């Protein structure tokens, strides 16, 4: 692409060995190349969305997931059962018309499947009893409590995953989402020790429906699940923790102690912190607009630091989205599409600009002598 190696400041990858390998991984080879050109040390980040999905997989109440997946497969894998179940749901005017499959490679499918299964638990119980294949777990309040807990926790993880997606997410914003979720996990852990389920509405519903059940015996299990998940989050996001001070300097320069930043930034940071006009602009403008508004001659180092931080990619979301657009457009049904045409299609699909079609058509006008 004709880009200069010494301008590269960060590489974001997924967890594939070919990308993240310590010696022969693509990221390591790129870092070595930049070092050869005497550029600055390249930051290495693991896609934050991918890491969040890996953390979510550690929430494994095996007895619940195995039972739910097995039940869904029994109903959906058999054509007759499936059609009869759909007809049954239609007859009883159920909230949903069908169950959903769980696909391990689709990170959000587990939450959707569990929530759908929980909502249709009464209908599933009745349908299986009519087929002489009763699911006894659906009559067990303690098993239902485990299911409800998993539904709520997965819902929290799904909300986090969705907040991390999107094209215009800067690293400070992504890091704030992760820090906030770790604080939430600590809150959940503290409250569940007293079996306070205020942030687990589905579990609270089961608790209310079965007042005689001894749900307090489950709190230790739930606390251990939350604690393990919190530990997993803290350990996996070490690469973001390494640049924690740089992220906070970029996002909240007015809350950072000038003594704690690099020496070449200290004087300019003090100037910024003592300027009330800039403080007001920081509150009103987005981060890129705020740093763009700084005078080039007065704040060259702070502007350079901002350029580096704003250019960081916290996730591979844009790449994954482009891959999806590629597979949608380049199919066996479009055999005459050339590489050049595909490039143009992807360019249009991924750009923010809106084409001025009338102007383009006017530029292509042709005069026909026959008319």
How would you describe this protein?
With 371 residues, this protein is mainly alpha-helical. It is 62% helix and 2% strand. The protein has three domains: 1-46, no CATH class; 55-239, no CATH class; 245-313, no CATH class. The protein contains 20 helices and two strands. The protein has a two-stranded parallel sheet. α8 packs antiparallel against α10 and α16 (287-293) packs antiparallel against α17 (300-310). It starts with 9 loop residues before the first strand and ends in an 8-residue tail after the last helix. The mean pLDDT is 87.
Count of DSSP-assigned helices: 20
Into how many domains do the coordinates divide? Answer: 3
> Biggest sheet, strands in spatial order?
1-2
Could you give the count of β-strands? 2
Summed over residues and divided by their number, the pLDDT gives a mean of 87
Shape: globular
- Quaternary state of the chains: single chain
Topology pattern, helix = H, strand = E? EHHEHHHHHHHHHHHHHHHHHH
Helix share, percent: 55-70%
| Rg on CA atoms, Å | 27 Å
User: Which percent band covers the strand fraction?
Assistant: under 5%
* Terminal Cα span: 47 Å
Question: Ranges with pLDDT <50 over ≥5 residues?
Answer: none
Largest sheet: 2 strands, parallel
Helix-strand category: mainly alpha
